[in-house]
Amino acid sequence: MKLKDIQLVRLHKYIADCGVASRRKAEDLIKWGEVTVNGQVVKEMGYKIIAGKDSVKVKNKLLRPASKDLYILLYKPTGVVTTLNDPEKRTTVKDLLIGVKERVFPIGRLDYDSEGLLILTNDGEYAQQVIHPTKNVKKVYNVKVKGKPEQKHIERLKMGVTLAEGRAKAVHIERMRSSDNHDWFKVVLTEGKNRQIRRMFEKVGFDVLKLKRVAIGRLTLGSLQRGQFKFLTKEQAELALKS
Asked: Suppose 224 and one of 59, 75, 84, 139 were both cysteines; which one would form an S-S bond, judging by CB atoms 3.0 to 4.6 Å apart?
């Protein structure tokens, strides 16, 4: 290999480009000692490899660059975990992608008891844009809450509450409809902390009964039904990055 042909790539980016995980998740895999380069465990952040020459394995599985970028929009039902493998043998989002042979990974997550829009891809650069906090990509949720939150509770959620990882807030909340025992809210986030909306409402004294993500940016579920998915073009996928 000639010097001019050598292409140095950061290890976490190479892992993401191979469709294994987002860059953030790839950094975790490196940190946990699950990545080897030419047979040696590498835990160094920022480590660079020679693409096309160095042998990279994740969990002892050899990585190969993805042949093409894939984008999948899935309507995740409740009772499904947002992971590719589950030690408890629960249904995963991968189980729903019947006929999809290429390796893809979910961007962000929806918890087990939540449903709605989920994007899966093998494009690590795109995934990074969707989840990176500086991009301020809006995620829209319909949320059913037990009880009758007052305006003071809504204002507190918009101002922010303290969770274990730090402050969390909604960029927009509006009451959609009410009944005697519960209210429905539209909640917009640009963050992605674990079970964030449920924990935020718990902080102000209310339990979330149902949660459905209906949009990421301008990308919506459309006519998809629970458990269904469809392939997106690059242009369609980029709607998620637009407000």
From this structure: 75
Nearest Cα residue to 105 out of 33, 175, 199, 24: 24
How far is CA 117 from its chain centroid? 10
Crossing angle of helices 196-203 and 151-159, rounded to 10°: 130
**35: how many CB neighbours lie within 10 A of its CB?**
25
CB-CB contact of 33 with 85 (8 Å): no
Residue closest to 200 by CA, chosen among 166, 151, 243:
166
Catalytic residue at 111? Answer: yes
The pLDDT > 90 percentage for the chain reads: 74
pLDDT of residue 6: 57
φ/ψ of 199, rounded to 5, equals -70, -35
Angle ∠(67,73,74) on CA atoms, nearest 5 = 120
pTM of the model as a whole? 0.78
Average pLDDT over every residue of 176-181: 91
CB 242 within 8 A of CB 218: yes
Instruction: Out of 111, 113, 123, 183, pick the active-site residue.
Output: 111
Strand-strand pairing, 182-189 and 172-178: antiparallel
Q: Locate 44 and state its tokens.
A: 């160094």
Would you tell me how many other CB atoms lie within 10 Å of the CB of residue 113?
13
> What integer best gives the mean pLDDT of the chain?
91
